[in-house]
Amino acid sequence: MARLPGYLRALTALAGEGIASVSSEELALAAGVSSAMLRKDLSYLGSYGVRGVGYDVERLASEIAAALGLTQDWPVAIVGMGNLGRALAAYRGFAERGFRVIALLDHDERVVGEEIAGCPVRPMSDLPGLVERDGLAIGVIATASEGAQEACDELVAAGIRSVLNFAPVVLAVPDDVVVRKVDLSTELQILAFHGQRLAVAEAVAP
Amino acid sequence: MARLPGYLRALTALAGEGIASVSSEELALAAGVSSAMLRKDLSYLGSYGVRGVGYDVERLASEIAAALGLTQDWPVAIVGMGNLGRALAAYRGFAERGFRVIALLDHDERVVGEEIAGCPVRPMSDLPGLVERDGLAIGVIATASEGAQEACDELVAAGIRSVLNFAPVVLAVPDDVVVRKVDLSTELQILAFHGQRLAVAEAVAP
DNA sequence: ACGACTTTGTGAAGGGAGGCACAAAGTTGC
DNA sequence: GCAACTTTGTGCCTCCCTTCACAAAGTCGT
């Protein structure tokens, strides 16, 4: 379920405010979904609500965290130390949510050895060892478009089956590999589309 | 249509290889969709294909670009000059696709005046002027979660109706404002979910 | 202890997006 | 100029996701 992270985030925020119990209505509002959908989603996890009262915030949060597999730390490696890769390496958001960046990788020998955000850049040949010895399970692709497929192939060959792709290309992977895509320019283009529709609508009926 | 940017990207790549004509089958493969869906999507734009031959790459690319409103440059402002905001300011991907970052903004007076990637950081109070005089239409929110709603409110108050949100919160906006969200940690959590399912499956049937 | 009230969990209905399959249209070879 | 082949455009069908609505269940006041 792609919405569980949103619920977890809303619950964490509520817990931070010292709220112990929440109804499906309130939580749905905070997470930006309908209450019926929220209840149906949560019912898949089990019956953790109490009729007439609502859900226990702490309890539900830990159930969702368990379902998402967030009870453990997930080691992450970032491939590609260009502009984007450096930014991601410096970004604190990973560690805050249980994702530990254990390696920065680059194909380019001139970059290997450099230190970014206190972490040395390592060659791609280190990948198998990272998977084997450090339990690396998630790879982040921050290369340019051209290098993305090759980087992905190397990740998959090393045994990684979860990939987060920032490059604006469609990656070809075996069926058992999961690829999630984050694409700035696609999002911007969708916004441009709406912006234009707005402009056209205004021109017609000002 | 959220898939048009993907088609455009595939077409641009084909044009770069000097390919002049493409069938729906080939283009669909390159864009990672089914050929039937591609044809249906393109038929909404009009009949730009030739039966028995396929689509003219250049022609189709410019039609899609026009539909997306990419014939003009879209001015963009980035709000929030923390880690993420600085990274975005330095990121070249915007300009490459017709999105011009015309302003960097921050609420914090200690950051205002600083220069990042050759562009000065300006106060939030400059917003109305940017919208009025420079045609600013798209706002990018790169603040921390806490400041996101306030930043969004200021963007909307200034007249911006297209927002790209990097903060992991659900923004409340009027109906005529479009918000697109890019959320790293949600994507990572979804990957963790799959990673855990994989681990569980392996433990059951090794 | 009982009744009224609140809230969950879920069956049924509704809608929309994607896929299938085929007719229409255009091209190419002879 | 005609026939065979290729490829688009689209009507129809199916399936999944969302929403509606209500019964079951549990709480709180009296």
Structure description:
Two copies of one chain form a homodimer. Chain A is of the alpha/beta class and 206 residues long. Chain A has two domains: 4-68, Orthogonal Bundle (Arc Repressor Mutant, subunit A), CATH 1.10.10.10; 74-186, Rossmann fold (3-Layer(aba) Sandwich), CATH 3.40.50.720. Helices cover 48% and strands 19% of the residues of chain A. Chain A contains nine helices and ten strands. The first copy, chain A, has helices spanning 4-16, 24-31, 35-45, 57-68, 83-90, 93-96, 127-134, 145-157, 184-204, and strands at 21-22, 49-50, 54-56, 74-79, 99-106, 115-116, 119-123, 138-141, 162-165, 178-181. Chain A has a seven-stranded mixed beta sheet with strand order 6-7-5-4-8-9-10. In chain A, helix 2 packs across helix 3. The longest helix of chain A is centred in the last third of the chain and has 21 residues, at 184-204. The N and C termini of chain A lie far apart (43 Å). The model of chain A has no long low-confidence stretch (mean pLDDT 94). Chains A and B meet through helix 1, helix 5, helix 6, strand 9 and helix 9 of A and helix 1, helix 5, helix 6, strand 9 and helix 9 of B. Chain A binds a DNA duplex (30 and 30 nucleotides) through residues 23-25, 34, 36-37, 39-40, 42-43, 47, 49-55.
Mean of residue pLDDT of chain A?
Answer: 94
Classified in CATH, the superfamily of the largest domain in chain A is NAD(P)-binding Rossmann-like Domain
> What is the CATH C-level name of the largest domain in chain A?
Alpha Beta
Structural class of chain A: alpha/beta
Strand tally of chain A is 10
Largest inter-chain contact set:
A-B, 60 and 60 residues
Largest sheet composition of chain A = 7 strands, mixed
Number of helices of chain A: 9
